[in-house]
Description:
Blueprint: E1 8-9, H1 12-22, E2 29-32, E3 37-39, E4 43-45, E5 48-49, E6 65-68, H2 69-79, E7 94-99, E8 103-109, E9 113-120, E10 122-123, E11 129-132, H3 133-144, E12 149-154, E13 158-163, E14 169-173, E15 191-195, H4 198-207, E16 218-223, E17 226-231, E18 239-247, E19 256-259, H5 261-271, E20 275-278, E21 292-296, E22 299-303, H6 316-323
Antiparallel strand pairs: 1-5, 2-3, 3-4, 6-10, 6-12, 7-8, 7-11, 8-9, 9-22, 12-13, 13-14, 15-18, 15-20, 16-17, 16-19, 17-18, 20-21, 21-22
Amino acid sequence: METDRKELLQALRRFGAAVRAQKTPRVELLESTGNMVTVDSTIRISPLVLDDFPALDFAAKPPHARLDAGDFAALVGEVAPAASKDEARPILTGCALEPGTGEITLTATDSYRLHTGTRPASVEQGWSAVVPARALVAAAKMAGRDPGEVTITVTDHHVVVASLAGRWWLGVRTIAGSFPSWRQLMPAGGLGVTVDAPAALADAVAAAKPWCLENAPVIVRMTAHGLTVEVHPAGIGNYGPVALEADVPADQVGAAIALNRSYLADALKATGGAELRWPVGSMGAPTALRPMMAVGNGIRALIMPVRLPASSEPQPEAVEAEAQAARAPLRQRASSSHHGAGCWWPQR
């Protein structure tokens, strides 16, 4: 597009639609006046005055962080899915950006799950920001198509993510408020389950999707030979159990946990799913709603479980059958919503 640079700002959506409608590889901007812009002598668009556009005072400021564009795109892709989409709780629709020692941390939560991850970065200390997740996803798309490095600059009310080479930048207003103190939720220890074939676990969870009607949860059950994945929706039969090999602590054989399927799928995608952790004792007590954590790829993903009714606990003979890799199916499905689940922060 050729134009003398006037102090005008076009209504971008209308202008973009006009350009796409031409279906030509090159569009010439024929005229730009104070009242009208003409494209190819057929389209006239009223511009907006550039002075009305809010200024972003980041150009004169040094960046607060710099990291590889691919690392930035991957980090956002793994963390942002956990951000809330409920506009009534705006602080949870954002991701918390924080500096570390030689790394940057990104965290998102909707109060039922939490993803946090780090990537190596050159960072300045003494800043933090809560950035709308949708804006970070848009910046990550640009970073993924533009190899190199990205910079992050924080002003009083904005965060600007930009290509170090200056080929693109995205500025967005930060979200006011205090992000939840998420670090106190991270389990200090716990029992780890090492999954021998994490891709098979992800496939089993993906295949369960048609069965998760009315938010029926996926049930992960521990056996002497590994774990099983199953769903028991009301009135239409069962999915599974799908048996997977894993290293399970002996005192957890027969224990079960019920999880939102899409949350579990996102956690496995973000972390790779090779290691799952539970706080000690949480798996054997159906009423102890403590988070499951998947670990890998520099990401930790926590999910609050759905409460399993006491009647869904396996009977001793079923536990023994599981040890022989031939357990009987459950007779009663798990709770079908998060009304019986825990969450980390009070709901409005």
